[in-house]
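Sanity check

After download, print the first record. It should look like this:
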Amino acid sequence: MLRVVVCVSGGGTNLQAIIDGIAQGAVCQTEIVRVISNNPGAYALERAKQAGIEGVCVSPKDYENRSLFEAALLQCVKEAAPDLIVLAGFMVKAPDEMVRQFENRIINIHPSLIPAFCGTGYYGLRVHEAALARGVKITGATVHFVNDGMDTGPIIMQKAVKVRDGDTPETLQKRVMEEAEWVLLPWCINLIAAGQIRVENGRVTIAE
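Expected structure tokens:
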């Protein structure tokens, strides 16, 4: 059984996609053992409660400095003894020590086709605003392993989404979530649980 910790900052729609995937059997041999949020008001914590999953808030506002917050976050993760950490709309950069201790065991979902519109400053609606400003015809989502950079880890899987005439950042965000994010993230977790994902020389291979 793959033990998963999900880290979320907001509404938790990607968390819900994972919960639903497990319940429906699309994600096999997987259990969410803890949901962690940096935001005490995150609806993701309510989603966890409704699903009978332990929810914990580790807020940077409760600590004197960043180092103390990162240490507390890492401790909260380690207490749950996860096999995999999923950053599902987590607006906190994974601490370097966490990345080191959980090498190739942290994945992130990003709402663009990396390397486009990613890195520092590209999050939430800003990603879709940038895509529309550039006039791209195709956008999408990417699931990747987390390394010590920002959206620079090995790519596991991507799914494209067409940009439509008249799209706003909000409509594009909604469609990328529905058509790409909510599909990709459970799928990748299922592949990891099945032992089909390998990382070699900074690249991901998927066994058939």
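If your output differs, re-run the checksum step. Summary of this record's structure: DSSP finds six helices and nine strands in the chain.
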